[in-house]
Amino acid sequence: MQILRKTNKLFLVVVGCLLFTSCDSDAVFDEYASVPNQWNKDSIATFNFKAPDTLNGYNLYVNLRNTDAYKFSNLFLIVEMNYPNGKVVKDTLEYKMAAPNGELLGTGFSDLKENKLWYRGYKEPFAFNEEGEYTVNIQHAMRNYGVVNGVENLQGITEIGFRVEKAQK
């Protein structure tokens, strides 16, 4: 009887996972990298993916999961996209991470919040104009107010992700 219960629980977990992932039909690429304890300023999250096509438009996102150990109201990231034919585009981006009252933004019911942050496609869909393998590198560029040197180890970020989804027409 106990084996049957364990089998039923395992079956429900597998079916739940399949339903959860199958409902996300817009995702073309969605991957996360874990951050052990703290995100070092020299640690770069790297994501490699193949261009889905050169005809359709896409939205590109940086995804972050953070806990209430994150003590800043914003987040500065350096995001670098390497195109298949050698072109490199590097951006320094700022994202709002907390409301004026200090409450962390993002979705989630516990102290773990998930943030889906625009990278490309917010004004008009991003087009992959080169076929082949793209590489996206993400690192933090946080500084304490009035301090020249950056934050060595950023606390509160648990995972960094990158997502490509088909743009809605």
TrEMBL record:
<keyword id="KW-0449">Lipoprotein</keyword>
<dbReference type="Pfam" id="PF14109">
    <property type="entry name" value="GldH_lipo"/>
</dbReference>
<protein>
    <submittedName>
        <fullName>Gliding motility lipoprotein GldH</fullName>
    </submittedName>
</protein>
<dbReference type="InterPro" id="IPR020018">
    <property type="entry name" value="Motility-assoc_lipoprot_GldH"/>
</dbReference>
<keyword id="KW-0732">Signal</keyword>
<feature type="signal peptide">
    <location>
        <begin position="1"/>
        <end position="27"/>
    </location>
</feature>
